[in-house]
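Tokens for Major facilitator superfamily domain containing 4Aa. Go.
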Amino acid sequence: MESLSRNVGLTFPPFVSSLSSLLSSLSALLTSTLIISVVFAIIPLCHHVVLLAVAMGVAGAAMGVIDTIGNLQLVKLYQKDSAIFLQALHFFIGCGALVSPLVVDPFLAEDSCVLSANRTANSSSSDLEHLRNTLAGHGAALHNASWYPLYTEGVVVTRVSYAFWIMAAINLPVPAAVLALMFHERLVSCSRGSPPLLDKESHTSSSPTVRDACPGCGGALDFLRGHPATFFIIHALGGAIVFITDGIIGCYAGFVYTYAVSPPLLMGHKAAGCLDSIFWASITAGRLCFIFVSYRYAPPVLLTVSLVGVIVVQSLLLIFYTSRVFLFIGTCVLGLCISSVFPSILAFTEDMLDYKGAATTVLVTSASTGEMLLQLLVGSVIHSEGSYSFLLSTTITSIISLCLFLLLLYTHHFHRNYQPDSSGAIDMKEQPTDGGS
């Protein structure tokens, strides 16, 4: 479900900064998790595509809020050690993307999900065949596609509605846990004599990091004032890197099946269908491994190895494009390499910017936007140029991401040199005051 949520609604996280000034993070998480369960419960009842689109948009917006707040709070709480916890967070995101298709699979029909009331309608069959060939694109005719006739009218034999209801029920313990945490922190007081613990801490503590975690709360102009140009360049470069890398994840997960069943591979539908699960399984395993690797190596080292590995694997996939075996091997290695890019670049960017908090929102928004737009662009290229352009497009974009990362390191060098000057200026400004006293 993770990739689906990003595609339809994760471009909403820019609103999280303003939302956090009105509600606490726990309240926003409680509301968003409840919305997801409600939407998944009503999706099977949406009998019109417009209603389904609205429901998926609402679910995507709620998932975007959860994604942004989760990353932001981990960065705020753990700061220098946030890379480890971010790897753990995205490991569980990968687990969800891996497990959810397994929940849905038992409820899918083996053949057509609709038994046609009139199977002799030659005109309808020819129209649907033309539609299938059009969607497949030039040079990408699906292998054995005629095995699966498409019918739009008749008796529905699939029970996929149960899968959505099961997912809604599985999600219910999450808002229950958030609500229990709110009671534990006395954010939801049952009596007038128990003031909220967080309110008590906010009155006694004047730590600037609490204010920095919500940069929009003090006004956009106050936050933007006094920062060098490298501050904004780092935001832009970090966002561009995750725009590309998360876009590659979305493209590969979305189009590897189409690539596998198209010439020259012409794989069967069952074998090709395993590629997406293998890809997400390798991403999940990679994030689990990088939890422990993050203890020993800094994010720049992990990012360099990961981005170079992505380019090497995709280049080999281009060379051995006729090998079915290497497609499976390359899918596994690609998932392992690209799995740690987002949490590592988030930890590295926030570390460069002294954990101001704004970078988290920028990166999450850029990642979700890239996963949505790059799929649209690559899908258009596949439609016009054929399935081979799928790997060529993702390889070119991965090379661009490595170049942007090298530029980020170069910008970080100048930004780091700026910091002693700014601190020295503050010391010189305060020195006469100390001397006068």
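Strands lie at 114-116, 154-156.
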